[in-house]
């Protein structure tokens, strides 16, 4: 059976339960999660709320960094793996020491120490962007759902794969924001219904280059790159 550590939030926010032969999980944030039915009014409300939040911050600036440069850095991390406790990477250490960790703990509850062995695919994406000074356009988060909503709030969300785009996955094929459980970068559209990606926390906790089917993709966030 294929298993995956769902959602990039501290593990003390994950509640697992069994339904038949399936192990399911949901993030506990103190409020009920929206139903996974992707109805248009609910989706519109989510995007409207995200846009309102984004309006409080400056517009994402254009940086003199290309998508190719970002992907080169991301691909250099291939082979890095977590320790036996599910942590121990430089991505964990960086996120825990960043000011953003305090903000996301305040938002999601938990503790900064909880990030030490948390699912880290979004920490990887955030680390790559920040190393190149792109934190304002790639975003920084450890929770994939919130990160996707952030892109939507900045009018940088869509369904077209582009090199350097941040791709959000639901392995069960869900298409709502709350279905998102994994994230990475698009390397290219293979033109056959699949995309080539570079991802952290995949295949047992490694940075790897993968091929993913379009059926697993919820959507894409588009950073602002130099031409």
Distance between the termini: 43 Å
The amount of helix comes to 25-40%
Total helical segments: 7
Relative strand content: 15-25%
Mass-distribution shape: globular
Structural class: alpha+beta
Mean pLDDT across all residues, rounded?
82
Number of domains: 1
Instruction: Report the strand count.
Output: 8
Task: Kindly report the spatial arrangement of strands forming the biggest sheet.
Answer: 3-8-4-5-6-7
The major pleated sheet works out as: 6 strands, antiparallel
Residue stretches low in confidence (pLDDT < 50, at least 5 long) are 1-7, 9-40, 54-62
Q: Work out the radius of gyration.
A: 16 Å
- The helix/strand order is EEHHHHHHHEEEEEE
Domain Peptidase C51: 96-224
InterPro entries: CHAP_dom
Protein name: CHAP domain-containing protein
Pfam families: CHAP (PF05257)
């Amino acid at each position: 059976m294929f298993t995956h550590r769902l959602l990039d939030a501290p593990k003390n926010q994950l509640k697992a339960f069994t339904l038949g032969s399936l192990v399911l999980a949901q993030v506990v944030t103190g409020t009920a999660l929206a139903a996974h039915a992707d109805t248009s009014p609910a989706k519109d409300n989510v995007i409207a709320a995200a846009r309102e939040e984004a309006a409080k911050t400056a517009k994402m600036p254009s940086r003199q960094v290309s998508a190719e440069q970002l992907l080169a850095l991301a691909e250099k991390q291939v082979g890095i793996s977590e320790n036996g406790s599910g942590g121990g990477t430089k991505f964990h250490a960086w996120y825990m020491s960043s000011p953003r960790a305090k903000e996301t703990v305040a938002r999601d509850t938990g503790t900064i120490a909880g990030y030490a062995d948390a699912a880290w695919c979004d920490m990887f994406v955030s680390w790559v962007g920040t190393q190149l000074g792109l934190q304002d356009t790639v975003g920084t988060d450890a929770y994939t759902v919130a990160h996707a909503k952030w892109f939507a709030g900045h009018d940088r969300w869509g369904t077209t794969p582009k090199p350097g785009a941040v791709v959000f996955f639901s392995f069960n094929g869900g298409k709502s924001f709350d279905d998102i459980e994994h994230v990475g970068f698009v390397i290219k559209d293979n033109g056959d219904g699949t995309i080539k990606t570079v991802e952290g926390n995949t295949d047992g906790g490694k940075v790897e280059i993968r091929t993913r089917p379009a059926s697993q993709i919820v959507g894409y966030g588009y950073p602002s790159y130099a031409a």
